[in-house]
Amino acid sequence: MKSSRYFPTLAVFFIALGVGAMAQQPASAAPPSIPTTGFAGLDQYRARRIAVFTDDFGQLARYRDANAALTPPKPGEDRVVFFGDSITDIWHLDEYFPGKPYVNRGIGGQTTPQMLVRFRQDVINLQPKVVIILAGTNDIAGNTGPMRLEDIEADYATIAELARANHIKLIYSSVLPVHNYTDRSKDFFAQRSPEKILALNVWLKSYCAAAPNGCIYLDYFSAMVDDKGLMKKDLADDGLHPNAAGFKIMAPLAEAAIEKALK
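The chain above was modelled as a monomer; its predicted structure follows.
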């Protein structure tokens, strides 16, 4: 009988406690903030990407249907996956490599941590003979947060180890130079230290030369840099992304590297 006498009292207590806790919550919580990078354009970009960073960091959904629809390579097919960020994403491979079994798996804005997340789905599972990787410029910019050079290099090495473990020949492209010759280019340029680009390229070239079973270093940088150490003005309208003239220089260099890897 005692328990039945006190039950209503306890119920009222817990209801009151819950109401009090609810009353302490703000009516509408402010959206999470991202620490400033010091670049207004990059801050706005990162703010727009909060849903990506929290819901699908590697953006596995981007190519999920295309991967499912892609049939296994045919006997004798030299499938190559182009893997990278926006520079790869905007590259119309069918125009520059007509008739070639080349697969584009670039995603604009991505950094090497994001590429690591999707490397199995977007590269390994596609069973290519060769993967050609262009990455790093967004790491330097800090698209997914500040990155030390040694952490970018660690991601490069991990991706290379995954490729080797799955018998995929690896081509590492140099990070492209950038320029600030146009109004459109100034923000991109300010986010990407030419000194860090050079340092990463030195590391990549050295790593490829010393890597077990070898990997190939694809030097776009030397073919696209001017006498000031910046991207040639006529190769990228915004200072970062190659235009048609830029890709026209890159395509034969990529093809030569692929031929070398296949041998």
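Confidence is low (pLDDT under 50) at residues 1-17, 19-27.
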